[in-house]
Design goal:
By secondary structure, the chain is mainly α. The chain has two domains: about 120 residues, no CATH class; about 100 residues, no CATH class. The chain has eleven helices and five strands, in the order ααααβαββββαααααα. The strands form two sheets. It has a three-stranded mixed beta sheet with strand order 1-4-3. The longest helix is centred in the C-terminal third of the chain and has 20 residues.
Amino acid sequence: MRILPGVLKELAKHVPTVLFQTVEWNELAHELPKISRRIIQKEGYSELLAKQKEMLAPLGIFVSEEAVNGTLNMNKEAGIKWLTLYFAQIFSEDGFFLDIRSHHFKSDGDNLIWHPSPLWTRFDETFRQGVLKVYEGFYTDNNDLYFEGLKMIGLIQPDWSSEDKNKLAELFRSQFGSALTEEMNFDLDHFKTSIIKLSDFMLKKKVKIPKDFLYLGIYLVTLYSSLEETHSKLPVRDIYLKVRDLKASSPQ
């Protein structure tokens, strides 16, 4: 972690250390100069901000180029907006801003105003499609699609036994909690525990995970830290399906 740029290091300290032991570090090291340019020089920031502004405004999330000052209502409506933001960015091919912690937001009626920090990334397209298949498979109870997505993001290996594939799938599924059947609370400690168990399993299997999984972990940690503050049960499946259907009906 010592080689990470300051802002990324600040976010990464909330991620269980064992996850870093499973990451392919040669791949991540190759990324670091690019990440530093994005943080320090704001490389690509204005372009992505403009795209996210256009994408998110219809969802009641307004992107601001200026730092936000004002009250943030930490309630269920804010939680719904955060989950909407999370999924909408995953659906975007243009990349996404990693840090969605609460201090980057303020409320404006039922809307959220968001000033993104300059830390952004773009998933490898195969990885992004794999993440979407994991969510689609889980939230539509399609086990085949769920397993296909886990393979695409580098968690399930083709030479594993059926027992190991099922074990990994269950470990990853644990982070979803009761989201398939009911509204759920978000607990950051529970999420961290699920990541530790998953990482321990990957270490045991001597499998390195792609750098994008680390970015996904950081993104999820910032989401959980915000949602935990709302103390609200949220209809995660319904929010995912709504964002999916909106993206499907939007002009490309």
